[in-house]
Amino acid sequence: MRILGIDTSCDDTSCAVVEDGHRVLSNVVSSQVDLHARFGGVVPEIASRRHMEMMIPVVEECLERAGIALADLDAVAVTYGPGLLGSLLVGVSYGKSLAYGLGVPLAGVHHLEGHIAANFLREDPPPFPLLNLVVSGGHSDLILMRGHGDYVVLGETVDDAAGEVFDKVARELGLPYPGGPYLDKAAELGNEDEVKFTRPKIRGHKYGFSFSGTKTRALQELEKRGHSQETVRDIAAGLRKAIVRDLLYHVPEILVETGARAFAISGGVAANSLLRREAEKLAAKVGVPLYVPPREYCTDNGAMIASAGYFRLKAGVVSGPDLSAEASLPLSSWARTSS
């Protein structure tokens, strides 16, 4: 089954053709970094307009790279939430129209489902039950996956997401946009023990995260120490160490409690160098396999949406013409609900 996957949840217009949920025939991403760089963050109105301009050209390039025509597609999958509402509307409207015009099934995909599915873009998929750490600019979640379409959210951030903190602190440090990757590079050159970050205590959320205080601590140190190159690097290193520590802190306990047979990381922050290194050490220590997507599938992309859509359609979950874009959308089991 060849599926066209579409993601317009934020500022990248992403499309891919994936065969049988794991074989990527093409993956095209049109970035808007240059458009938003001068604002230091994504401007929703600009993002949605750019999606409208790039949607058809990206799909055409995607099909050309895959060596197929529209008529060769067996289904269409599209992100319908969560994300920026205006951006989502562009992708959902196009995806519904295309599926209707071709007479093929449509799969509406939750964005987090897509990130999780990025680890299934391989010949040897992870076993179940699978513990997923999904970390991005908008999400920091620990999710137990008992099978395709069967999820239990065990922990999530009670305030800022990890990627959001990286980006906001990077901006204050004077690093280029987008901040996360540049902070990661700066941290490689800094002393991670120069600035200490205590681990937050979260009442009522056993496996929850809280990064707001960590962000505040970094900004306070910056105000006190100034913007020297050494200070920027040390704060970046200390902040990165603290966030990675907190992201992985509960993983060993959850693996034992749930009997998960593997650990997976996905989302934009999964590209972080220290997180990948520390996750490898942890997995080796507790004796479970670790799955992390290649960096091109960590950030938003159409391939992960196509993969997730394949498993939805395989389970008989098909979206209808009433599929709507939703800026805020809870992750729930496919076995109980459909789009």
Give a short overview.
The protein is α/β, with parallel strands linked by helices. The protein is built from 11 helices and 10 strands. Helix 5 (162-172) packs across helix 6 (179-187).
Features:
339 residues; alpha/beta; Nucleotidyltransferase, domain 5; 2 domains; 5-stranded mixed beta sheet; 10 strands; 18% strand
Quick one: how many beta strands?
10
Q: Which segments are poorly predicted (pLDDT under 50) over 5 or more consecutive residues?
A: none
* Category from helices, strands and their pairing: alpha/beta
Q: CATH homologous superfamily of the largest domain, by name? A: ATPase, nucleotide binding domain
Largest sheet: 5 strands, mixed
Overview of the structural elements:
The chain has helices at residues 33-36, 44-66, 85-102, 111-117, 162-172, 179-187, 212-225, 229-248, 251-258, 273-286, 302-314; strands at 2-7, 13-19, 23-30, 75-81, 106-110, 130-135, 140-147, 150-156, 262-266, 290-291. A 5-stranded mixed beta sheet has the order 3-2-1-4-5, sandwiched between helices. It has a 5-stranded mixed beta sheet with strand order 8-7-6-9-10, sandwiched between helices. It has 339 residues and is of the alpha/beta class. α2 (44-66) packs parallel to α3, α6 crosses α8 and α7 runs antiparallel to α8. The protein has 11 helices and 10 strands. Helix content is 42%, strand content 18%. It folds into 2 domains: 2-118 and 296-314, ATPase, nucleotide binding domain (Nucleotidyltransferase, domain 5, 2-Layer Sandwich), CATH 3.30.420.40; 128-292, Nucleotidyltransferase, domain 5 (2-Layer Sandwich), CATH 3.30.420.
